[in-house]
Fold:
Amino acid sequence: MKNSFKILFASGALLLSLNSCKKDALNLKPTNDATADVVYASPAGYKNSLVKLYATYSLTSPSGSDNSDVGGLNSGFADFLRLFWTSQELTTDEAICAWGDTGIPELDYSTPSVDNQFLRGLYSRSILQITFVNEFLRESTPEKLAGRNITGADAAAITKYRSEARFLRAYQYWVLMDAFGNPPFVTENDAIGKVAPQQIQRAALFNYVESELKAIETDLPEPRANEYGRADKGAAWALLARMYLNAQVYIGAPKYTEAITYSSKVINGGYALKGNYMDLFRTDNDSRTTNLETILSINYDGVNSTNYGGTTFLINAGINGDMNPASYGVPNGGWGGNRTRANLPALFPDANGTLDKRGAFFGTKNSIDDIGVFTDGLRVTKFKNVSSTGITPPSLNGTFSSLDFPIFRLAEQYLIYGEAVMRGGTGGTTALALTYVNALRTRAYGNTSGNVSTLTTDFFLDERGRELYWEGHRRTDLVRYGKYTDGSYLWQFKGGVKAGAALPAYRNLYPLPTADLIANPNLKQNTGY
Structure:
């Protein structure tokens, strides 16, 4: 790939294979064949270790040695994005899966069990990544650097790495806070050993993540000043804005004014909308000169750093052999699993992208009569392992993707700003919110024919569906709007009923895994499970 840091991701596979953690991962130091004094002996060792922290987002252990840390899943299922996407999309109105693998049908029904292997995998994967960060921070203190004779510019650079590591940990604690509410909590300041981690409550975790992001803000590079694929101030602001928009859910108190403040920081940070919406989901989206919209991405390489998750999963699981996989950049792919429920294409004026060009659907049958039939429901063709000019990059076995996935992009911040204004936040204006919304709609329609003149709070849930579908936002959005469990908004097979049914309110949170509850007496299960 073109970017040097992206190239280094391939080395993350080796680094990951050197680290596997026990089931009580949060309170143990990763076991290494190479000792810390060897791994961190030089500035280059610290840079390689930083690469590993990022690489854990896009790689699984090639040897499968970390399987015990991802809920017992095989490495094909253990990729972070695949697990996160599954938790955010399959249980909602945006996606459903035809496969009968253990745990998937109950996700399709929005009724996951306490031991759902995919949720257990996400929980464990987030904890694994937090554990890696904690270890990096323990080994990069001023005292450790001095003891290894790392001084001057090298020490200053490693200090900056620490801020990026803290961001990555904050992001994973946000994932746990959003999905599970009250997870175990450990930082680099906790003693290493067989000490059961304490449980942190959701509101306290919100305060911690908020304080971490604000503490590192000044040390992170300016927006777009870091290497591609690495966190900067824009990423920290974007996560804060997302958290503040959901604060009513997380802490029981609104933070819409703060959401306006931090989304505005991003909006004014030098980013710009990409001219063609679909080009955001093509393999040359890693260009810093032609893509000013992506704030932070998870990076993939279809030859050097492959696994069956990430965008390889998003593309292959959403097509089948009858759809000409070569046109999606995976000539030997097509797994025939994920597609939409009827609610998603219904948000668009047409399902073929003629008017609102964000709609990328394939097929003729919107309704789902049989979950196991892949052609029941429209297929999503938003993601392709092809460049904006139609070039397919090299792909191992003709299956793996080099498409990078945006964790944060500017369009989300426009929508956060607008929704926060409509919910009563101060410091913004309806006029500016309308400007941002219509910038997205002008891009989508290619002209002003789709522009709107008025805004409501409910409008933003639908517009987020149109702009951000299948990007891992939907469950969080439906919970914020009170529609994830409520009977006033249904989708096919919600609650295990074909016509859809209400869910008990406790399902707004996922359960903590039974194995962790047994291993750690400090943990209490979420209400209802």
In short: Residues 1-195+472-529 form a domain with the Serine Threonine Protein Phosphatase 5, Tetratricopeptide repeat fold (CATH 1.25.40.390). Confidence is low (pLDDT under 50) at residues 10-25, 62-69. The longest helix spans residues 152-180. The two ends are 45 Å apart (CA to CA).
